[in-house]
Amino acid sequence: MPSRSDDAVASALEHAATVLVGDIRDLAVSNPVVLIDGRSGAGKTTLARMLVGRWPVQGRVQSIALDSIYPGWDGLDAGAERALDGILRPHGRGLLGSWRRWDWKSEADAESHAVDPALSLLVEGSGILTPATAKIADVTVWVESAEQGRKARALARDGDTYRPHWDRWAAQEDEHVRRDDPRALATRVVTVP
After folding, report:
1. Is the pTM above the cut of 0.90?
2. Rounded to 5 degrees, what angle do the CA atoms 71, 51, 82 make?
């Protein structure tokens, strides 16, 4: 049985998805680009899944999680750069893009994935919303959530795999927030308890 806080999180994300579907529909473009940023455990991935399930534009949406791209636990900035150079810039120019999946177990790049410029694109992950990426995107989202709730959700999701890296990753997020001010770059700010 979900707790009241789980209900509040689900309700906040449900409301955000409804509003964002309207934002995307209002663009009246065939291949919108949506970026979802926020700190670890804020609800980015859940919100992205909700949007994919309700995508209001004809054709499929390509959904890419930066968790698949970051080159290791010190790779927040590098993951965002990889997404900018390999995915967002080509997509914005109408060119085929690509990205390489990071294999966390072998700590090396793995297979390559193509990105079709004719299709919609949703990229989610900590660090994706920067001044350079915001210029390319149609809808930019910052998911705001207090550390206590975020940490509990992230560690419940990833447990002992993530626990020793929480502070290390949080320091990279702090630097991203200080340097890039993603909240100010967002067309929508979503608050999750």
Report:
1. yes
2. 20
